[in-house]
Amino acid sequence: MLTDAPEDSPATPGFEELGITGPVLKAIKDLGYETPSPIQAATIPTLLSGRDVVGQAQTGTGKTAAFALPVLERLDVSQKIPQALVLAPTRELALQVCEAFESYASKMKGVHVLPVYGGQGYGVQLSALRRGVHVIVGTPGRIMDHLAKGTLDLSELKYLVLDEADEMLKMGFAEDVEQILAQTPSEKQVALFSATMPPQIRRLAQKYLSDPEEISIKSKTATGTNITQRYLVVSYAQKVDALTRILEVENFDGMIVFVRTKNETETLAEKLRARGYSAAAINGDVAQVQRERSVNQLKDGKLDILVATDVAARGLDVERISHVINFDIPTDTESYVHRIGRTGRAGRSGDAISFITPRERYLLKHIEKATRQQPAQMELPSTEDVNTTRLNRFDDAITTALSETGRIEAFRDIVAHYVRHHDVPEGDVAAALAVVAQGDKPLLLDPANDPLSKAVEADNRPPRERGTRDAREPRTERRGRGDYTAYRIEVGRRHRVEPRQIVGALANEGGLGRDDFGVINIRPDFSTVELPANLSSAVLEKLRDTRISGRLIEIKPDRGPGARRSGPRDGDDRGDRFERRDRPERRDERPARNGDRDEKPFRKPRHKG
Ligand code: AMP
C-alpha cells in the first residue's frame, strides 16, 4: 500500500494517539514537539504495530523521531544488548541520529546509545560495547569491521533502520548494507528511509523487507534537487558516437534526447534505431496523434528513447524517464531547466547529461547559476567501461536463462546428445552457442582501436595538463575550490574497487566532505585520488589505517605518473596479458583501456533538499 502523507493534514493526531507513552512522550513534550510531523503521523503507528516501513522523506521532515520513538517505546532496558541498529551514510548523520535518540530517551533510565563510525579509534567503541548498549547508530563500513572481528553481537537485534539509504548506496556501501541485513536475525523489523527511490533501493526493499508499508512525504518544494547534472565536452562530429557509448554504460530506463532542430530529431532517431535502440522522433511537425502515441509507447516501455525538440517535449511527464540528454545544449537557461525537469518525476532520481562543445564551455556558468548546482564533468565511457558492461549483461543473460528451468530442461538433452556424439567439452559447446547467439557483431570493443576516446580526451584536457612536471614532486593541481594533491592508494580495479567506495571510505575515516574529492583514477593494481593539498597529518594518519574491500590502502602522495614508473608499464602489461590469454578469465583482471589514462571523474553526488 502506498500512503501519500499530506504535508498539512487537517486533524493531525497527537503523539499519544499515535501510541507514544510514558517517558518518551514526556521527553518529546519537553523538547517542544507539539504535533507529529506528517512522516511521524504515518510511520509511528505502523512501526509500533510491528510492520516494516519504506519511507520516502528528506532530511528536515522529522524522520529521525519517526523511527526513533517507536524503537524507544518498545526497548527492553533491562537487556543490555544491541536491540536496535541504525545505519547512516556519514559519521555526521550517525552522530546527529545518536544525539536525537539520546534526547528522546532522556526521561528513560539507563538507555545506552552508541555511535560507531570510521575514523574513531576502536578502543572507545570496544569498551562501550563491552559495557553494553541498547541502540547502535553506525556507518556501514565500521559496523562490518566489528562484525568481522566478532566484537559486535547482533544476535538479539529487533530493529534495523536504514537512514538515507540512497546516500549509502551512492557512497558505495551497497555490499556492506546487504551483508549486514543478511547477517542479522531474520525476524527483525526493518525501516528504510530514502530521499529518492531509485531501482536499487526498491530492489533492496523487496529483498530484505517483508510486506513493508510504503510512506511517501510530498515535499512542498519540488526543486529538482534529485536530478544529477553532468556534462561531457565533445566536439560536434563525435556526438553520435559519444551518445552510443553513454547508452551502453548508463543504466537507463526511459530517455529523452534533446536536439536543436526538427530535422535532427529524425536523423538522430534513425541513427539510434540503426544501432539497435528503440527510438522515435517527436517535433512540432509530427502530428499530435502520433506524438501522443510515441509518448504512450515510452510510458509503456515499448519505446525507450524519444529524440525531441523543446517545443515537442513541453510539459512531458513520464515517470519512466531516468535520463535527459542535451545532445545540443540550449542557449537559454529556461529551456535547460525545463528539459532536465523531464526526469526525476514523482520523487524518483534522475540524470541529466549535457554535451558541450569546447566553444560552449562558457554556458556552464549560466547553468550553474540557474540551477544552483554545479554540473560535474564526466568522461567519455572508455572501451573498458563498455566492455565491462557488455560482459555483465552477457553474464546476466545466462543467469536469467538458467532460471527458465523448463526451457533449459528441453535443451539439456540436445546439448548432451551433441557432446556425446562429437566428443567435445561442454564448455566449448556453450562457447559455440554464444557465437551463434552473438552473430557477426563482436561482443567486445577493441581497446587498441579506439579513436573516439582519444579525440574526446583531447577535447577535455586543459592545455596546462600537457606540460611537463618534475616527476619527484607530488602532483598538485589548482582548481576552482582550492589546491589538490594526488594520493596513491593500494587498491585498484583488480580489487573491484569503484570510485564511490573510495569516496565513502575516505570520507568516513578522514571526516572529509564530498567536495574534498577531485579526480579519482582507478588503475589495475592501485588508484590515485585527488584530495585537498592542505590535509593535516592527523587526517592522513587516520586515512592510513583505512581498508577498502578488506585491503589496507597505505595512502601516500602520488609521485608523478606512478602507473608508468612503478612496475610494468600499462601498455606492456596489457599487451602481455592479451598475448598470454585468448580469453580473460576474471573480469577484474581485464586489461586497462589502451592509451595512457584510465581515469574516472568522481561523480558528484546528488544534492538533497
Ligand atoms: P529530522 O528530519 O529528523 O532531521 O528532523 C528535523 C528537525 O525537526 C529536528 O531538529 C527535530 O528536532 C525537529 N522535529 C522533529 N519532529 C518534530 C516535531 N514533531 N515537532 C517539532 N520539531 C520536530
Report what the structure shows:
It contains 23 helices and 23 strands. The chain is of the alpha/beta class and 609 residues long. α7 crosses α9 and α14 crosses α15. The strands form four sheets. An eight-stranded parallel beta sheet has the order 1-8-2-7-6-3-5-4, with helices on both faces. The longest helix has 21 residues. The protein has four domains: 215 residues, P-loop containing nucleotide triphosphate hydrolases (Rossmann fold, 3-Layer(aba) Sandwich), CATH 3.40.50.300; 154 residues, 3-Layer(aba) Sandwich (Rossmann fold), CATH 3.40.50; 54 residues, no CATH class; 87 residues, Alpha-Beta Plaits, CATH 3.30.70.330. The chain is globular. A hairpin with a 4-residue loop joins β18 and β19. Helix content is 41%, strand content 16%. Adenosine monophosphate binds next to α4.
| Structural domains: how many | 4
In CATH, the architecture of the largest domain is 3-Layer(aba) Sandwich
> Can you tell me the CATH superfamily of the largest domain?
P-loop containing nucleotide triphosphate hydrolases
Bound molecules: adenosine monophosphate
The CATH topology name of the largest domain reads Rossmann fold
CATH class of the largest domain: Alpha Beta
Strand content: 15-25%
The averaged pLDDT comes out at 81
What sort of overall outline do the alpha carbons produce when their principal axes are compared? globular
Spans of at least 5 consecutive residues with low confidence: 1-10, 219-223, 463-481, 562-609
Helical fraction? 40-55%
Number of DSSP-assigned strands: 23
Based on CA atoms alone, the radius of gyration comes out at 26 Å
Number of helices: 23
Main beta sheet: strand number and arrangement?
A: 8 strands, parallel
Q: N- to C-terminal separation? A: 26 Å
Strands in their spatial order, largest beta sheet: 1-8-2-7-6-3-5-4
Structural category is alpha/beta
